[in-house]
Amino acid sequence: MIRLDNVTKVYGADTVAVRDVSFDIAKGDFVFLVGPSGSGKSTLLRLMSRQERPERGDVWISGKNVNEMPDSRVPYLRRSMGNVFQDYKLLSNKTVFENVAFALEVIGKPRHVINQQVPAVLELVGLADKADRFPDQLSGGEQQRVSIARAFVNRPLIMLADEPTGNLDPATGEGIMQLLEAINRSGTTVVMATHDHRIVNLMRKRVIQLDRGVLVRDQERGVYE
Amino acid sequence: MLSRIAYAFRETWASFRRNLTLTAAAVLTSAVSLLLVGVTFLVQRGFDNLLVRWKGDVQLIVFMTPDATPENVAYVDGVIRSQPNVIDVAKLAYLDKPASYAEAQQLFAGDPTMLSLLTPETIPTQFKIVSLTDDSALLRSLADQYRILPKVQGVSLAEDEFEVISTLSGFVRTVTIVMSLVLLAVAVTLIWNTIRTAMFARRREIEVMKLVGATNWFIRIPFMLEGLLHGLIGGVLSCGGLWGLNRAWESGVAGFKPGTGVSSLVVPSGYVSGVMILLLAIGALAGAIGSGIAASRFLDV
Predict the structure, then answer these.
(1) Using CB atoms and an 8 Å cut-off, which of residues 18-57 of chain A contact chain B?
(2) Is the separation of the CB atoms in B204 and A89 below 8 Å?
(3) Would you say A162 and A84 are in contact if contact means Cβ atoms under 8 Å apart?
């Protein structure tokens, strides 16, 4: 599903964010990218969604080399993946329903599909009764659920989550992890960057550890070391 | 498809309301510059009317009386052609009554009194003479020779009527074209800047749109539509301004005495409508170009 071959990403003249990283993620996997701040976790996620291009090496998503993909195809690549962020990236002038609907609206889904899929996904994330609220009327955990609903409403093959529990207290963070695990069980491949020891140790999923841009560990059912 | 179109219009309208002051500035600048473009066209057309009888380097016009017989005309024609070393015989033209009448329609477009006096029967016919020399004294002596021929009503010399108007027309043309081009560039820049500001205000939304897989065109179109509307509304305003100016000019000219030539500066209303359509097209194009550049420039994949 996701394959990186000797990927190196350099910012500016000599800031190496990722150096010679290779790994394979199979369909339906749940993978943690771990490491301290600046170790290259977010860069790897950005390379997968073609927000960045590597200086060397190749990134393959569903059998397609995303570096060689023409710009016009990138939106279609992104429709096959959902993105979740630490700061939620919700639109404050739109309600919960509208925020989630927005993801379908801008890829041209008709209104009847939107009216069917949005309530269903809000039900899944447990926010069916808050569809008319605005983001600033919600708690951090609820906002992150909206963000996950938006990422998942189009039933993507891949979910990329960048520190989704970073701004949340432990109990709320656990709730978010349960949600991501449920999404993973439905067949979506989940790649999550985190430096939250507790969550990684609790979930016991595959762990890919980075240190200063270098892959130092790739372990099934791993823990945070 | 329908939902996409509805989305584009909804977003365009929302952005319009959000940036009201910048939008007003862009629209007004477009309107003023387009108005100047329109005025350039009308002024130019007015001068062309004045100069229409001198088109094609004509230097002398010999007017025959309306009652001149074909024999009288042939005689004068023979006299003119007898000087092939001074007259460009190949370019010698004779305007019969219908042709002279058609020319008068343009020349006296703004002078209905004069037009009502002229009929295809009462109009003087004319010889248009291109000479091979620019020697003013020689041309004047030729005019004097023609004036005494039978049934010649009068002779006009280009340099008496033409030179001042021609110089003035060239000057006005240059000044107005340069000014309208500069103002158009300012309008495009303002539209560009307005769209850039609109995109900056919605950068978070654009970021989300890109991440969920909206195509660049889908993101761009509402912004381009917005710029196009700026130009188009500016165009509509300029059309209104042009119409008002033209009306004021027409009534001003009507106050002049008939036969002073000022009436030639009035432009036919069909031409004014044509200029208005052109202004709308230029406005829309300028808006689309300004916003298109902004929307492409500030939208990386």
Answers:
(1) 49-50
(2) yes
(3) yes
Domain B53-162 indexed as CATH 3.30.70.3040: yes
Min Cα distance A150 → chain B (Å) is 9
**Side-by-side strand order, sheet with A2-11:** A15-25, A2-11, A56-61, A64-65
By the 8 A CB rule, do B80 and B91 touch? no
Considering only the beta carbons, identify the residue of A75, A91, A108 that sits closest to B4. A108
Confidence of residue B226 (pLDDT cuts 50, 70, 90): confident
* Contact (CB, 8 A) for B73 and B149: no
The minimum CA-CA distance between B191 and chain A, rounded to whole Å, is: 25
| CA separation for the pair A151, A148 (Å, rounded) | 5
**Complex-level ipTM beyond the 0.95 threshold:** no
What average pLDDT score do residues B222-230 get? 88
Amino acid at B118: L
What residue ranges do the domains of chain B occupy? 2-51+167-297, 53-162
Model confidence pLDDT, tens digit, residues A20-68: 999 999 999 999 999 998 899 999 999 999 999 999 999 999 999 999 9
Query: Using CB atoms, which residue from A72, A106, A150 is nearest to B214?
Result: A106
| Cβ-based neighbour number of residue A81 at 10 Å | 26
Pair of tokens at residue B263: 């009436």
Please tell me if residue B9 touches chain A, with a CB cutoff of 8 Å: no
Give the range among A105-109, A152-156, B209-213, B255-259 with minimum mean pLDDT: B255-259
Query: ∠ at Cα B170 (B169, B173), nearest 5°?
Result: 80
Q: Which of B3, B1, B18, B2 is nearest to B223 (CA)?
A: B18
Residue A75 φ/ψ region, left for φ over 0, alpha for ψ in the -120 to 50 degree band, beta for the rest: alpha
Find, in chain B, the residue whose alpha carbon is nearest to that of A150. Answer: B212
| B55–A contact, CB cutoff 8 A | no
Tell me, what's the pLDDT at B238? 94
> Is A110 close to B3, i.e. CB distance below 8 A?
yes
Pairwise CB contact (< 8 Å): B212 & A91:
no
Task: Look at the block and give the residue holding tokens 């001042």.
Answer: B164
Residues of B in contact with A74 (CB under 8 A): 301
pLDDT in tens, A121-165: 999 999 999 999 999 999 999 999 999 999 999 999 999 999 999
Is B130 strand, coil or helix?
coil
| Residue spans of beta strands (DSSP E) within chain A | 2-11, 15-25, 30-34, 56-61, 64-65, 81-85, 158-162, 189-194, 206-211, 214-219
